[in-house]
Amino acid sequence: MSSLRVALIASARHPISEPFAGGLEAQTWWLARALNRRGHHVELFAAPGSDPTLGARELPVRRSTFSAAARSDVSMPSAMWMEEHHAYLGLMLDLARDGEHRFDVVHNNSLHYLPVAMATALRIPVVTTLHTPPTPWLESAINAQDLCPVTFTAVSRFTAEAWQETVPCARVVRNGIDMDFWRPGPGGGGLVWSGRLVPEKAPHLAIEAARAAGMALQIAGPISDRAYFEDRIEPLLEEDVRYVGHLEGRELAELLGSASAALVTPSWDEPYGLVVAEALACGTPVCGFDRGALSEILTPDCGLLAPPGDVEALAELIPRAMKLDRRDARHRAEQFCSLDRTTDAYTDLYEEVAR
């Protein structure tokens, strides 16, 4: 099949545009671009404000109107929940009407349950990528069907194993990054931490470890949890620890490439760890906590892992990580984290299910 028509379903909450709200949005953007460059036709269904160069179609995210009785009912969810529900419901009903005439495959790259729950209504194959640990809504959508018609992939072996009970045969298709964009930098600077500033990413622990190691630290990323930032991060900012903002890709690549090591401090089981791949591609060794899929990406040549939550152990590893060969970090990214590998895997899968 030379050219594929792909309906790529993305987040209804965050635009697929720079600077990205998180790794999911970044991965969707890069995948859409890669498929387009290979001559496939991708129609991206995403939140308002998504990158127009991707040919995105806005998901119909709109303020829902309800009667006074419905609004006062004890079962009334939040407005945001209802808006997302309506967006995906409208999309799936549209695809159920005539999607098979417009697309060869639907790739659900969102976290929402409706593309899975309504897959049986479509006359077109559906692929869903599992980006998170199991959630009750998505498990319910799968378990409610005697034979779920969806083909599942997982972003890491760790994530596939976490879903084993519900999805026993999810294929592993790891997220990839563009090696021509994320280029090696000179290093030699202090430490860097990048990602969403939220409790589960725990940048406050990176600050503690950097200070214990006597190293300066720069923090970059969106403030996704304002209360957490104001309570746990802002009071710790001084001359040796700086928050440099929510950077676009070029600025972030320059920051990563200038650092001697990147800290990754998850306080949850990281399903993949796109920030690890980005640092390695920039030639920057990684030092972090051994949680989730991080040990799948890193080898002792390019990264060192401390026990989860052990700030003292992490601080002790930082000087060793800074001495790792930057060429080994880049080589690991090229061999394990490339966007070309990811795109090859998805293209092969699309062709398989379309047949």
Describe what you observe in this structure.
This protein is α/β, with parallel strands linked by helices and 355 residues long. The chain has two domains: 5-176 and 339-354, 3-Layer(aba) Sandwich (Rossmann fold), CATH 3.40.50; 191-336, 3-Layer(aba) Sandwich (Rossmann fold). The chain contains 14 helices and 13 strands. It has helices spanning 23-37, 68-72, 79-102, 114-117, 136-143, 157-162, 203-212, 226-233, 249-258, 274-281, 294-297, 311-322, 326-336, 339-354; strands at 5-9, 41-46, 57-58, 105-108, 126-130, 151-154, 171-172, 191-194, 217-220, 241-245, 261-264, 286-289, 303-306. The strands form two sheets. The protein has a seven-stranded parallel β-sheet with strand order 3-2-1-4-5-6-7, sandwiched between helices. A six-stranded parallel β-sheet has the order 10-9-8-11-12-13, sandwiched between helices. The chain is globular and about 60 Å long. The N and C termini lie close together (9 Å).
